[in-house]
């Protein structure tokens, strides 16, 4: 289906996705529900690889001790590779274990409940640490950070980070602080398969045919995004439907340019895998109503998924279920090629 109408786009501008004190983890009465761990991933993707979707910013490299950074990254498979949220919590709770406050290296904090670099509740028993600590030491970051990832996953991450962070400490100001720090820790998106997001810029007008078929499908797209689609089809096992369409979609969107595509699972795929593709490219529930337009790492301009009217899995969109992706581009009129298109793969 048609995505949101195109908005003004300053070429080369990248808006990375959103989101000190010594906090107390308010997890005393958290339910003891161990989340199912991600033990495998889609072949060729980064699920469980320990390499998040975002590379560390210069600030992150200065601020986070190397051992902590590696541990945040290696533990992030449980939360969709989002190491920056784990790091932000570690920063706010104990400055990555550097705080001299009680309970960081021994004993409990001033509230008499929490301990370690991630400030898990260890009293009363059974405690949150008993549920998620895996038998390790609450004072050892190698044990505490993966336990925090498990707790966050059980609390809703990565689908709903606001809910997960609020579960970690029941305060709206805490959620805001964690998200703000996570944003400071992010640099460029790693992109699918570890490629820098927006690594390709194709310049036109194109020689030869502007619109070409996507191999093995009935979809016809701007030739410059076809290599991206072929790669995504292979990795996420999905099938493209409408791509270029002169009518039947938003006139100001990407379908009339051949730069927007509707996707459904292939025979070997699933709606869960399609949802993973959306999140891997930068979609999140917090901006779903707008298709996350203007809030995505390049090369995506718009992602229509759960929460955007008429898009999403069958539970959200019924018989109209599909995922819509739109690529960033310079302005162009319907039925004509954009002068420049940003892509995942270099031309």
Structural descriptors:
single chain; 347 residues; alpha+beta; Lysozyme; 2 domains; four-stranded antiparallel β-sheet; two-stranded antiparallel sheet; 10 helices; 12 strands; 13% strand
Structure overview:
This protein is an alpha+beta fold. It folds into two domains: 54-190, Lysozyme (Orthogonal Bundle); 193-343, no CATH class. The protein has ten helices and twelve strands. The radius of gyration is 22 Å and the shape is elongated.
List strands and helices in order, with pairings.
Blueprint: E1 54-56, H1 58-63, H2 66-75, H3 83-94, E2 114-115, E3 120-121, H4 128-132, H5 141-154, H6 161-168, H7 172-185, E4 186-189, E5 200-203, E6 211-213, E7 220-222, H8 226-236, E8 238-240, E9 260-265, H9 271-280, E10 300-304, H10 314-317, E11 323-327, E12 340-343
Antiparallel strand pairs: 1-4, 2-3, 5-12, 6-7, 8-9, 9-11, 10-11
The tally of helices reads: 10
Intertermini distance: 27 Å
> How many beta-strand segments?
12
Strand content: 5-15%
Helical amount among residues, as a percent range? 25-40%
Structural class: alpha+beta
- Oligomeric state as shown: single chain
Low-confidence stretches are 4-52
């Amino acid at each position: 289906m048609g995505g949101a109408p195109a908005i003004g786009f300053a070429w080369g501008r990248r808006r990375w996705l959103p989101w000190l004190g010594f906090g107390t983890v308010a997890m005393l009465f958290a339910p003891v529900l161990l989340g199912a761990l991600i033990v495998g991933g889609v072949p060729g993707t980064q699920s469980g690889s320990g390499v998040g979707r975002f590379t560390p910013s210069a600030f992150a490299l200065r601020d986070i001790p190397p051992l902590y950074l590696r541990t945040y990254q290696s533990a992030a498979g449980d939360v969709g590779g989002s190491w920056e949220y784990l790091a932000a919590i570690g920063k706010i709770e104990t400055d990555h274990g550097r705080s001299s406050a009680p309970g960081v290296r021994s004993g409990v904090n001033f509230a008499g409940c929490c301990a370690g670099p991630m400030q898990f509740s260890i009293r009363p028993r059974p405690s949150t640490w008993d549920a998620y600590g895996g038998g390790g030491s609450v004072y050892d970051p190698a044990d505490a950070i993966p336990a925090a990832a498990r707790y966050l996953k059980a609390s809703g991450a990565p689908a709903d980070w606001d809910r997960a962070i609020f579960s970690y400490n029941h305060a709206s100001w805490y959620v805001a602080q964690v998200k703000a720090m996570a944003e400071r820790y992010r640099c460029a998106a790693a992109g699918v398969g570890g490629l820098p997001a927006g690594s390709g810029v194709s310049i036109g007008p194109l020689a030869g045919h502007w619109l070409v078929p996507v191999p093995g499908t009935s979809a016809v797209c701007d030739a410059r995004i076809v290599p991206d689609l072929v790669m995504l089809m292979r990795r996420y096992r999905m099938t493209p439907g409408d791509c270029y369409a002169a009518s039947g979609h938003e006139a100001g969107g990407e379908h009339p340019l051949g730069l927007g595509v509707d996707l459904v699972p292939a025979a070997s795929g699933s709606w869960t895998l399609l949802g993973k593709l959306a999140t891997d490219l930068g979609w999140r529930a917090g901006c779903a109503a707008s298709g996350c337009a203007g809030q995505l790492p390049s090369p995506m301009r718009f992602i229509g998924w759960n929460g955007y009217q008429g898009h999403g899995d069958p539970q959200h969109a019924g018989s109209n279920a599909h995922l819509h992706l739109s690529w960033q581009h310079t302005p162009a009129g319907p039925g004509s090629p954009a002068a420049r298109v940003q892509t995942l793969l270099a031309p």
